[in-house]
Specification:
Blueprint: H1 2-26, H2 36-63, H3 68-96, H4 109-119, H5 121-130, H6 137-166, H7 169-190
Helix pairs in contact: 1-2, 1-6, 1-7, 2-4, 2-5, 2-6, 3-4, 3-7
């Protein structure tokens, strides 16, 4: 059980970081109080990240080791490419529209789907490894999903608070963080 909790925390960290970026990029529009929209957005982010983090190990479990080599060869490049592209776009728009109240909406359906898949590629590989172990699959994916949900919702609110103070500069930092996550994923898989 302890190993599953530690794996869950590890998998939830990318979701947490991306959620902070999402909350921070949405900050600065309106006042700093917790509004119904912020709660809905945080729950939306938590739901998508939690579901994908739980579903990917399930898919990995059923795939088994058959496609493990393919996923290990290209998954990190795809994640790096998408995260870098989103990060560069955030930095570009922050610099181009400096001083304007523009937000980058990471809680749209297309953005959430892309980010949910990207941040859960590691969870897919964990699921492949689960297929080789004698563990309770459904208990494991439930714990992974819950941790990812909680970390994502928390990250969104933390990002919103940070974004209130730093306004436009947080978009630049958010873009750098997304690029950094992409680089981290790439390095982890290349080493």
């Amino acid at each position: 059980m302890l190993e599953i909790i530690l794996i869950s925390i590890g998998l939830a960290m990318d979701c947490f970081a991306v959620s902070i970026v999402g909350g921070a990029s949405a900050a600065g529009i309106g006042n700093s109080t917790v509004t119904k929209t912020k709660v809905i957005n945080a729950l939306k982010v938590g739901f998508f990240f939690g579901i994908f983090q739980a579903l990917m190990p399930l898919i990995g479990w059923y795939i088994g080791s058959g496609f493990k080599d393919l996923i290990e060869k290209v998954g990190h490049w795809i994640a790096f490419g998408f995260l870098s592209a989103i990060g560069i776009k955030m930095i570009y728009e922050a610099v181009r529209y400096r001083g304007e109240k523009r937000k980058i909406d990471l809680v749209t359906l297309p953005a959430l789907l892309i980010l949910s898949v990207i941040t859960s590629i590691d969870a897919l590989l964990v699921g492949v490894s689960f297929s080789l172990l004698n563990i309770s699959l459904y208990l494991s994916i439930t714990i992974i999903g819950i941790f990812s949900f909680v970390f994502s919702v928390s990250g969104y609110f933390i990002g919103d608070r940070v974004g209130q103070f730093f306004k436009n500069n947080v978009r630049i930092a958010g873009g750098i963080i997304l690029i950094g996550i992409g680089i981290k994923i790439l390095i982890e898989h290349l080493i």
